[in-house]
Structure formats: C-alpha cells, structure tokens
Specification:
With 447 residues, this protein is α/β, with parallel strands linked by helices. It folds into 3 domains: 228 residues, Rossmann fold (3-Layer(aba) Sandwich), CATH 3.40.50.620; 91 residues, Tyrosyl-Transfer RNA Synthetase; 100 residues, Roll (Structural Genomics Hypothetical 15.5 Kd Protein In mrcA-pckA Intergenic Region, Chain A), CATH 3.10.290. It contains 21 helices and 15 strands. A 6-stranded mixed sheet has the order 1-6-5-2-3-4, sandwiched between helices. It has a 5-stranded mixed sheet with strand order 9-15-14-11-12. Helix 13 packs antiparallel against helix 16, helix 13 packs across helix 17 and helix 14 runs parallel beside helix 16. The chain binds one RNA strand of 82 nucleotides through helix 14, helix 17 and helix 21.
Length: 447
RNA sequence: GGGGGGAUUCCAGAGCGGUCAAAUGGGGCAGACUGUAAAUCUGUUGGCUACGCCUUCGGAGGUUCGAAUCCUCCUCCCCCCA
C-alpha cells in the first residue's frame, strides 16, 4: 500500500523548484513561487529572442527549463520576442542592437518552434501542452499613445532607472569606456517586456516568468506592472549563467556558436562539443542538459571518478543531448564517425566503406571539392592544402604544421612538405582525409 | 578655446636612426604527458618561387646611404585647464 502510494506520487509530480535546486539551476526565485506550483496548475513563460532561424546552445538551458516545467505537470509558454526583438534588450549588452524586420521574424519563429517541438509537447492534446505566442501580435496594434498612457503611467522612471541593466548603461566611467549610452528605445524595453507578462497574465492566466539571471530585472518589472495594473500576484524564477570552469564562454568554439540546427552544426560536431567538456563541467552540465534522475547521475559521477579515462559522464551527456536535439540515428552516426576518426583507424579501415557510408559518416566534417584530374600528374601537398583548398591559411602555416608533426593524410602522419599527392592517395578513388592536430578533420573530395 | 599625451604585428604592450618581421605577456596553432579532459612543459605564431626576397608599426609627404624610430601636414582617441 505504501509502495504504491509512493510510486504514484512520484509519477504525478516532481517538484519543479526542488528539482532545479539540486540541478544547480536555481538562481533567484520570488517567495511563494514553490507554494503556487504546489497548490495550483500554473502557466509560465520564457522569452526567446528570434535573432536567428535556429536556437543555439545558449538557449538550451531555457529550453530544458520549459521541458522540466512541463514535466512537472504545468503549462509552458514559449514567447517569441518579435516586438522585443525589434527593440533589443540592453541587459548584458554594451551596444545598441540591430533591428529585425517582420519577414525575418516570422521565418525565425517557425524554425524555432520546430526545434522546440523536439523538447516539449506542443500538440494541444494535453492540458499542459505548450503554446507559442509572439508578442509582436499584440504589440503591433498597440499605438504609442495608448501604450504610454495605459502602461507607461503605471511605473515611474525612477523605478525603471534603478534596474542594473539600465544603470550600467547610464554611466560612462573610466573603467568601462566602451559603454555606449542607452537610447530611449532600449530604455523602453523593460516596459514592453513587462507588458508581455501583464498580457499573458490577463489572457492566459500566466503567473510565472522564467529566464536567465540577467532577466531578473525585466521580469520583476512585469510582476510590478501586474500588481499595479491588475492588482494581481505574479512570480519570477531565474537560473544562473552557465559558465565554463576555465573561464571561457559556454557554447562557443573557435568555429563559433554551436547551433541546434544540423545544417549549421552537424550532429557529429554537436556530439563532439559535449564529449569535449572537462570533467568539472561535465558533472555540472549533465544535471542541466539531461533529464537523467538524481540517483542515476550520482551513480554516474561515482563511476566516472573511479575510471575517469572512460569519460562516462561526457559520453552520457553527449548521447542524451544529441538524441534530444537531433535524433537517435544522428547520435549513432556521430559515434560511428568519432570511432573512426579517434579510434585506430588506418587507411585500410577507411577503405572498407563505400562512398555513401563514407559521406554519411563524415557529413559533419568540413569538405573541400577539387578537380580530380589534378591528381593525375600529382600535386604538391602545400598547394593542395593552402591553394586548392582553404584547409590551411597559407603554405607557411602548412609547412609549420608538418614540421610540428601535426598533419595526417588518411590517418598517416606526414612530415615531408615536398610530398606530391597523386591518385594513390584517393580512398575509393575519391576521398582524402586530412587531419590537423588531434581533433580537426577535413575531407577532400575529388570529382 | 588653451595645454599635454597617444595611435605598433590577433589583443595588451615594449621599441625611439641601422644588429627590427619588431621584446614581453595573453590568445591561437602544434608537440609531449594523459582520457579526443584539466593542469603542466616544449615548440611555433606576416607572406613567398625561402641561407634570399616582398609587404607591415594611424594616413600623406619629407630628411637620411638607411626610418616603427627624426621633421611637416592630416585623421582619430585620451587626459588636464577653461
């Protein structure tokens, strides 16, 4: 009897706030939030800036929050900041932002919804199915005069100026002289975002806004507005900025952002990104970016500490993240490619693949097309790397790399920078696999 | 408006007539160690037809056998006094 009760409770609900707490994803929460979620079916929203037609890893923490919120039985709203995206949030930025036109916004919104659907349920079949809204839809009809009369009147400039996001842009001190000043447009941002919250409160009974810690100021402008305009009580919850142990920016590599769109960042690169996290970060990230339970993560951490060389944490993290954001099949391809590239692959093992397999395994590896006939009489390795392809920036760099023993052709080290590459090097009569250092692969396709 | 300081290779920052493709640190790249980790250590970090040549020290001229270094003008930045 007791056992059954326990299971059913566990199945019905996880406690959202407690869940975030142990996952290290709770920065600030307004008093009463946990009680609210406990007591009633709640709707919460997260704002997403539609600056591109794909989310990137920087968005992933927020996406996971929506997912967990839905898992805890409540209803998430993904708010596309069509209107706010046109203004630009001054929080955490030192410069005014470019504005987006409507056509781009709509396109981006559709793409983002598709990506979000992999994480949360938008089907409308459940009571807590997620919905997507775009604040442009209610803001575009709102006249300036109406807005400043109805909304602008409710808050004082004094209140708005007290926000850190505004303060940091108001002063131009010696320490921080790349600060640009704040336009009226940007100053208005918090009011517009605050109005979103009010609008959702009134129309969708949305009582909670969640966001990254930099959003706290904007969110509380919203709860304040709800208090004054609607006499209601609304809540705020934020998570901490995701950091890296070495102080670098999370989610960026030398090659730029890690995107969720496989066209921008291949499954292989996506998988590799997670696999390459340091031990310290992996322990933190696996809590944030997977839905693995507390017990299981604790077990994984212990196992990892016993045999860190197996990188169990990184592998599990990379697996879960890749399957969630891409698919099980993409994950398998990524593993296959990784095994070939980082295992004991030789030219012989590479030759076992037929052309299609080869291409599908290496689709995440940057490819360079060259004319096949250049190999007939042979081509100098330096010309191939620096001129026929842009694999390396200059011949000097190629020479240096070879001298440092950092270049492999078809998995074999090559130090002779006078080497002539001919058709003998073509795998399947078509491919040459170039490796720079340990991790950077390039595929030359001859056709 | 007056006075002063500055602009150097990816960044910070030395150099102040030849020995300067330019110290040092950071970053990048590579190697060793390991686990495709972190830390550490080492090498490397303008280009090329490469013991030589070419292009670089805010821009344009000039002085000189020779200039990142000296002079003139211009542009932009910072500081101080009004």
């Amino acid at each position: 009897m007791l056992v059954i009760l326990k299971i059913s409770i566990k199945k019905i609900k996880m406690n959202f706030v407690k869940e975030l707490e142990w996952r290290g994803m709770l920065q600030d929460v307004m008093p009463g939030t946990e009680e609210l979620l406990d007591k009633e079916f709640t709707t919460a929203y997260l704002g997403i800036d539609p600056t591109a037609d794909s989310l990137h890893i920087g968005h992933l923490a927020g996406v996971m929050m929506l997912k967990r919120f839905q898992q805890s039985g409540h209803k998430p709203i993904a708010l596309i900041g069509g209107a706010t995206g046109m203004i630009g949030d001054p929080s955490g930025k030192s410069q005014e932002r470019n504005l987006l036109d409507e056509e781009t916004l709509r396109h981006n919104q559709e793409a983002i919804k598709k990506q979000l659907s992999k994480f949360i349920d938008f089907s409308g079949k459940e009571k807590n199915s997620a919905i997507m809204v775009n604040n442009y839809d209610w803001m575009k009809e709102f006249s300036f005069l109406d807005f400043i009369r109805d909304i602008g009147k409710s808050l004082t400039v004094n209140y708005m100026m007290a926000k850190d996001s505004v303060k940091s842009r108001m002063s131009r001190d010696g320490e921080n002289n790349d600060v640009e000043g704040l336009s009226f447009t940007e100053f208005t941002y918090q009011l517009v975002q605050g109005y979103d919250f009010l609008h959702l409160y009134q129309n969708n009974n949305c009582k909670l806004q969640i966001g990254g810690s930099d959003q706290w100021g904007n969110i509380t402008t919203g709860t304040e507005l709800i208090r004054r305009k609607a006499g209601g009580k609304a809540f705020a919850l934020t998570w901490p900025l995701i950091t890296k142990a070495d102080g670098g920016k999370f989610g960026k590599t030398e090659k730029g952002n890690i995107w969720l769109d496989p066209k921008r960042t291949s499954s292989y690169e996506f998988y590799q990104f997670w696999l390459n996290t340091s031990d310290e970060d992996a322990e933190k990230y696996i809590k944030i970016f997977t839905i693995i339970s507390k017990e299981e993560i604790e077990k994984l951490v212990l196992e990892h500490k016993e045999a860190p060389n197996l990188r169990l944490l990184q592998k599990t993290l990379a697996k879960e993240a890749t399957i969630m954001a891409h698919s099980e099949k993409d994950y398998e391809t990524a593993i296959e490619a990784s095994a070939i590239l980082f295992g004991n692959g030789t030219k012989e093992t590479l030759e076992k693949f037929d052309e299609n397999t080869f291409l599908s395994v290496f689709k995440g590896v940057p490819q360079f097309k060259v004319e096949k006939n250049i190999f007939n009489s042979g081509i100098a390795i330096l010309d191939l790397l620096a001129e026929k392809t842009n694999i390396l920036a200059s011949k000097g760099e190629a020479r240096r790399l070879m001298k440092d023993n950092g270049l492999s052709i078809n998995q074999e080290k090559e130090q002779n920078s006078e080497k002539i590459i001919n058709t003998d090097y073509l795998i399947n009569d078509k491919f040459i696999l170039i490796r720079q250092g340990k991790k950077n692969y390039f595929l030359i396709v001859a056709e």
